[in-house]
Amino acid sequence: MALKGIIFDFDGLIIDTEMPGCNAWAELFNQHGFSFTIEDWKKAIGTGPSAYDPAQHLSQLTNGLLDPLVIQEQTLDRARELIELQPMLPGVLDFLIAAQRLGFPMAVASSSNREWVEGYLTKLDIRKYFKVVCTSNDVTNVKPDPELFLLAAKRLGISPSEAVIFEDSPNGIKAAFAAGIPCIAIPNDITKSMDLSLATKIIDSFQHLNPQALIELMN
Prior knowledge:
single chain, Rossmann fold, alpha/beta, 219 residues, 2 domains
């Protein structure tokens, strides 16, 4: 079927929140004499804390000395400080502008919470490009469950077969696959070494794709 809508992940796809998040946790773990690596962080990428919760992990390592809720908030604050230094990832804005000109309705579907996603979309001045924003606040199950993507397509008023998804992580790609929606992977520095094999196509950057070419690719 013809392409009628575009769904985007947020973290690691529109702006690099992954490396700042990893670095914030590494700083805290190191302060308490433990290591935290990119491999640890990969376990949490693209899904909710049920898959891997670094706050719970560090609390266990310190025999409960640290309150998971407290260190979670502290580390989020530190991650935000680091994210403030991050520009939008290359080609994202040009792609959004071009897609809007072609009349494609667009959505964000993220496993992060609404405050996080809406806050950064507004700060980056790109909230206006998205008809729909679906977050963990809107669903029972986050990625790799397909619920977020199916909800985003429904709210865009299109069927799953009429959508395409942009993702950067295996959990997001698995969710797209389970939803029956074609998925183009644009990995970041952390996720490029992960298993992206379920993606319909893998490209290096939004700089290497325009919406017109996307129409040709998906039709």
